[in-house]
Specification:
Layout lengths: L1 H7 L7 H12 L6 H8 L3 H15 L5 E6 L3 E6 L2 H13 L8 H15 L6 H8 L6 H13 L3 E5 L3 E5 L2 H10 L15 H5 L5 H16 L7 H19 L19 H16 L7 H14 L10 H26 L7 H20 L19 H18 L5 H16 L8 E6 L8 H11 L3 E7 L1 H5 L8 E5 L12 E4 L5 H8 L9 H4 L3 E5 L13 E6 L3 E7 L1 E13 L2 E9 L4 H16 L2 H7 L7 H4 L1
Parallel strand pairs: 5-6, 5-7, 7-8, 9-12, 11-13
Antiparallel strand pairs: 1-2, 3-4, 10-11, 12-13
Helix pairs in contact: 1-5, 2-4, 3-4, 6-8, 6-9, 11-13, 12-14, 13-14, 14-16, 15-16, 15-17, 16-18, 17-18
Amino acid sequence: MALGISKKLEFLDSQPRLKALFLLLFRADDFLTSEKLGERLNVTSRTVKSDMKQLKESVATNKEIQIVSKRSLGYKLMIENQEDEAAIREFFQMYSSLSLDSEFDHRVRYILRRFLSADQPVKVEEIQQELIINYSISRELQKVKEMLAKYGLSLNVRPHHGMVIEGPVFKKIMLTIRMYRYFDKNTSNDFGIPEYNAFFYCDRAEKEKIHNTFFKTITNSRIVFSDINAERFIIYLLYFRNQVLNGEEELLDLPKINFDYKPTDEYELVVELVQKLRNKFTGFDFSIEVIQFLTYIAIFSTDLYRFVDCSKENYNHLIQLAEETRNFLLREISEYLQIDAFDDYTCLKDLLKIMIPISLKIMLNVSDSVDLRYKDFHDTGDQPLLRMYMKKIKKTFAMTYQYEFSKREIHLIFLTFCGMLNRIVLEHRKLRLAIIAIDGRLSTQQLKFNLQHNFSEYIERIETKVLYELNSGDTQEYDYYLCSTYGKNLNITHQPIYYVKDELSEFEYIDSLRTIFFSAFAYESKLPPIDFQKVSGKKNGLIKKTDDVLVVDKEIQLKIYLKLTATKQEFTIFEETPTVFTLQIGVSIKEDRQKLKMLLNVLNRIIAEPQVLVNAVQQEQISYESFLR
């Protein structure tokens, strides 16, 4: 059955826009509207609807796959079982030439490859003829210029001759490799441009031997590359080898920078590797400049896992810039979150590891990265406030250092800051609990065991009492009273009380008990009181707009105005309709990590599951427990 699905999906290879739609739906956890799909594919929502109709018809014969649509929600791909889903995932990983690009993206990449591999100016008419189109490619050329700018390159027009890329040779080579994209040793790509394909040609058997030589050499060194960076490095080797074999070596125009590359372990690796390749194969007689450049690429590719390697002995002047840029990021995130990010030593270390290779790219004035095939780093919904601030930091960093983080790099920095936030442990007091033994003390043993076994850190003590003992008034007050559900039939006045359900599974049983320990964290005392207002029409005068705005466009729409330096503390919920809400939140963090963590917990839950907000406003009294339990 699974193999049948893969066979039926082969038609997507010849229809890139339908393929892109399918992959977007396949990777989505929820419904996607035609507007959102259009944004991702650079087409109109009308085009998406037309393509979706065609895609539905194309997969209609597959009972295992269905595309369902709901008004206001959009489209969702439904797959019958996990075996079929795994087969589809494997199919698209096997055929890595299937990309998640729109036709617009395909044209942009084709034009870039065409320019990069041309030995003379290229006219617009030539490109149009090759792409079999008769309309303007001005939008595509604008996108090409944006990509060139990341590498400090420009697209210049030579009257009556055409267009040509101008700039340092090494930057052209880096962009040429970037456009290769699919760093997979099992893939042989035909990009439709013979001159571009020729850059990377290698006999399959010989390529496998080069692979083996590289992996044996790097395995015996102190250097570690990620798998994708390792494959990319081999593409660089093939590129320069073909330059030597074709007698086309040229000066790389490498700039003089304040960095001595020869003391690095990466230089030692490159020299050893090239010597071994030179002994076994022809074409590896690389110049000193190429060795230097390959050392730079190796430093870009190094997986700096051990902090001990991030030393001035290894990277000399790179460390100074890495520390400067790391501190810039830490100051920015500290200002946004209103806490001192420098206090987190793990964050301090991990961020330096990320910034060392980026610092070398800053020195070379190139914003270079790798494309991880179908893995991109769009907003997955976790830590939305941090994601919003990361977008602002990315812009500020680009203006300051003329370097644009890739999606992969900004994701790594995001994960580092996530770790800092996750390491904030909420303080809590320990509770005094009373278990009401209305059916005898023996009946409470399992409950008492589960409480002590799973929640001991939250408990000061547990005492088992029969109801008449509690009613006598001789016992002290407790933070919580627990009783079996049968107690609902009795006149029990002790509060707060939690009735433990019978016949729950072990995990349900433990999960249900978590509710009673919410009060141990004192959300209500740390965060502002919650105010709820129903509004209609314009809200002018009610909402104090700030620069920090989170918008959640789901079935339940949210707009959150947030200020972490507010003098007036507030948490106001405005309900415009049963599915449209505006939140006005003002808190004064002032380096109170506990308050920040609590606020993030609340916001993360509301944004991830807006239904909890709908449920909360239907209660007589809204509390933070309403959002988190």
